[in-house]
């Protein structure tokens, strides 16, 4: 049985990486990336951050530590709050993803889940809540009842 389940969900050790000049931005990024990892039951092996986004990626000490952890097998993936922590655009981020994948890992951005709303969902939920409380029956089924 494989130690790491397929499909990306399970106890996979990951690194959380961020790069921002302000400490508050780093904390926010780490928080979002941790929430993303926790939602997938990934184990956060560590958090690394650099404080100068202007420095080239290969010269950032924390990024070097993250890639070393990936190469040594300490982590299997890298989670960032946004692509701007690593790359200037989506193309560069995808290229980095290929490099990380070549080392046997994965790189992912902590994105918000897509809201799965269907047309009329709010109205159906409101009707269900009213029906369970009895207000719906009173207003619509009892003639002369005040709404």
Instruction: Give the N-to-C terminal Cα separation.
Output: 61 Å
For this structure, the quaternary state is single chain
SSE string: EHEHEHEHH
- The gyration radius over C-alpha positions equals 23 Å
Average pLDDT, to the nearest integer? Answer: 82
Helix percent reads 40-55%
Strands, count = 4
Number of helices: 5
Shape: elongated
**Poorly predicted ranges:** 1-7
Please, could you describe this protein's structure?
There is one protein chain. This protein is of the alpha/beta class. 41% of the residues lie in helices and 16% in strands. It has 5 helices and 4 strands; from the N terminus they run βαβαβαβαα. The chain has a 4-stranded parallel sheet, sandwiched between helices. The longest helix has 17 residues, at 23-39. The radius of gyration is 23 Å and the shape is elongated.
Which descriptors apply to this entry?
single chain; 147 residues; alpha/beta; 5 helices; 4 strands; 41% helix; disordered N terminus
Tell me briefly what this model is.
The protein is α/β, with parallel strands linked by helices and 147 residues long.
Map the helices and strands.
Elements: E1 13-19, H1 23-39, E2 43-50, H2 61-72, E3 77-80, H3 90-102, E4 106-109, H4 121-133, H5 135-140
Parallel strand pairs: 1-2, 1-3, 3-4
């Amino acid at each position: 049985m494989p130690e790491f389940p397929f499909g990306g969900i399970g106890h996979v050790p990951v690194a959380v990486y961020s790069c921002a000049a302000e400490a508050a931005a780093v904390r926010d990024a780490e928080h979002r990336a941790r929430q993303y990892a926790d939602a997938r039951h990934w184990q956060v092996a560590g958090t690394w951050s650099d404080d100068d986004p202007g420095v080239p990626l290969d010269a950032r000490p924390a990024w070097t530590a993250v890639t070393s952890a990936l190469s040594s097998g300490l982590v299997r993936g890298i989670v960032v709050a946004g692509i701007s922590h690593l790359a200037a655009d989506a193309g560069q981020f995808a290229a980095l993803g290929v490099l990380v994948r070549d080392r046997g890992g994965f790189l992912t951005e902590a994105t918000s889940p897509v809201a799965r709303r269907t047309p009329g969902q709010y109205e159906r939920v409101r009707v269900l809540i009213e029906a369970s409380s009895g207000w719906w029956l009173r207003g619509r089924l009892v003639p002369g009842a005040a709404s």
